[in-house]
């Protein structure tokens, strides 16, 4: 469904991604792990065009998403960008909810801006989705009145509201108090069980092992190894992977 092909990204002369190849099948859950600074966020941001790749291509259901001219990557048109944002959801480490809007208004706004949904329909869908993530009782609360775990569940509902083909999660629980993480992880587990295609950058090895089908170890801007989550996490092939897993255990 989602294919990342020879993706590179440099910031000036600092090369962050050195040719990443990755694919996700429909319904697959892939965990992206690796040391801090290894390029996980940059990879996710390049996939949904928050960041312009330096070279390479991202294809969704056979449609190339990265605009090129004469072989070079160029900025996508507003229309192309909107299409990407609709099809590829993103959940951020820092939630990124609008502070001046309630939980429900955040989700209504997203639908109206990206899909042009009518007000009543958007509101009804927002309520349904808030219920789904266990936040129905907080529809009228502003982000500042919610815990990190609650804000992240609203952010997940917002992302679901656009009915994306795939959702990218960038360390969705890193900014949340440990005791509040499980409520977010269980929402993610339910999504996975419902068949959502997900690429999740995470340091939650329990989640990776129990929920993800495959784990990819990204290090120094390249994929060092990947495989079924259980075998990669329990019996990594490379010393570097072993070292990383020991360090975060
Ligand atoms: P990770 O998410 O795995 O911690 P990142 O993708 O955030 O890794 O960062 C990878 C590298 O890219 C780091 O060295 C970081 O400093 C650099 N980097 C990320 N974003 C930018 C940017 N906008 N400008 C310059 N360097 C950046
Ligand atoms: Mg990151």
From TrEMBL:
Subcellular location: Cell membrane
Keywords: Amino-acid transport, ATP-binding, Cell membrane, Membrane, Nucleotide-binding, Transport
Molecular function per GO: ABC-type amino acid transporter activity; ATP binding; ATP hydrolysis activity
Keyword presence, Transport: yes
Gene3D superfamilies in UniProt: P-loop containing nucleotide triphosphate hydrolases
Membrane topology: Peripheral membrane protein
Main location as per UniProt: membrane
Protein name, per record: Amino acid ABC transporter ATP-binding protein
Organism: Nocardioides bruguierae
